[in-house]
């Protein structure tokens, strides 16, 4: 797929069920708020607009994440796309989920039911509107749920070692 970086083999090997639940992980993200730059929590109206634009509901776990934290830049350069763009520097922003979807949809090889919600180090991760989990650009299911993905890929092994982003 042109323009889409496939998820690396090392991520597949590390995939495992989350030891912490989504609520615990969201609380961790909130405690580490100094390491993030976000657009702020998304309203129900914002989330409904995204769902209308993508042609179906957001996964419940992603909806919970966006409702509590919003889209933005998390930990070490993990972009999580939300209803609104998030300014992270004077000239840099994290794009919104619908804009990313439209840009990637222009690539006719992109599966229609996959919606990108995360990007880091050039690799995108997707949710599938038909089934639960987190997927690669090829549609391979990598994680059973958002909690497993966040814990394995986004949250640093030692969250206290995460430096705040430069402003």
Concise summary:
The chain is of the alpha+beta class and 167 residues long.
Structure, explained:
The chain contains 6 helices and 9 strands. It has 167 residues and is an alpha+beta fold. It has one domain (9-157): 3-Layer(aba) Sandwich (SMI1/KNR4-like). A 7-stranded antiparallel beta sheet has the order 1-2-3-6-7-8-9. It has a two-stranded antiparallel sheet with strand order 4-5. Strand 2 and strand 3 (78-80) form a beta hairpin.
Secondary structure: elements and pairs:
Blueprint: H1 9-14, H2 22-31, E1 37-38, H3 44-54, H4 60-68, E2 72-74, E3 78-80, E4 86-87, E5 93-94, H5 97-105, E6 114-120, E7 123-128, E8 131-135, E9 141-143, H6 146-154
Antiparallel strand pairs: 1-2, 2-3, 3-6, 4-5, 6-7, 7-8, 8-9
Please supply descriptive tags for the structure shown above.
167 residues, alpha+beta, seven-stranded antiparallel sheet, 9 strands, 6 helices, SMI1/KNR4-like
